[in-house]
Design a protein that fits this description.
Length: 93
Amino acid sequence: MADSIATRLLSESEKALCKAVEVLDVAAVANEVPPEYGETELKLLCKKFGLGFSEAKNAYRDFKESGCQVIADSLRKVMHSVDTIPVSTAECE
């Protein structure tokens, strides 16, 4: 049922965006992850919101290395941009 709902509600481009947002989840990053984990997804997010990738990439590496304790301004911008994505259309309906 969940797959059916996801198929109807999300286009392929939105599925990639949803997957990219997952790399900012503290629970996913808190586990032991490879050094390059999430950088492709972060690049997609930076492109989507018109943010600088190289600064965000370095901040994301620091974020992972610190156990999700250190969030530099460039990564915080990405996180705040993600927070602007509407999760439903209920508000406008």
